[in-house]
Design a protein that fits this description.
Layout lengths: L1 H27 L2 H22 L2 H11 L2 H31 L18
Helix pairs in contact: 2-4, 3-4
């Protein structure tokens, strides 16, 4: 029973932390700024899924159960996949900035804003 509760707590701890952080940010930010942060978080989440293509789940199993040669080849293959994904993703994001769908401020941290 303890193992099940621990597993559930670990699974939901990320979602709970995001919720608490959102409530904390909502206390100090304007609705527009909070919306921009939510768009940034969504962009990062979607981009990581596109770049990684969720192969890291399978690769982590292969790396942990295989020999060093298999693990090395798996890591090399995953790095090559990420490189190719970045090569395609960067022009796509640049196009989204060009057409005005994304603002360049999403990609650069602005130290001038004192939100906290």
């Amino acid at each position: 029973m303890f193992k099940i509760l621990t597993s559930l707590l670990l699974r939901f701890s990320g979602a709970i932390a995001k919720f608490v952080l959102t409530l904390y940010l909502a206390k100090f930010l304007s609705p527009q700024d909070l919306g921009e942060i939510a768009l940034l978080i969504a962009l990062v989440t979607i981009s990581t899924q596109i770049i990684g293509m969720d192969v890291h789940y399978f690769n982590s199993r292969i790396i942990s159960s295989g020999s060093k040669t298999i693990a090395s080849n798996t890591i090399k293959s995953q790095m090559f996949l990420h490189l190719i994904s970045y090569i395609f993703l960067i022009p796509f994001l640049s196009f989204l900035v060009y057409i005005g769908f994304l603002k360049t401020s999403f990609f650069f941290f602005n130290l001038g804003n004192n939100y906290f």
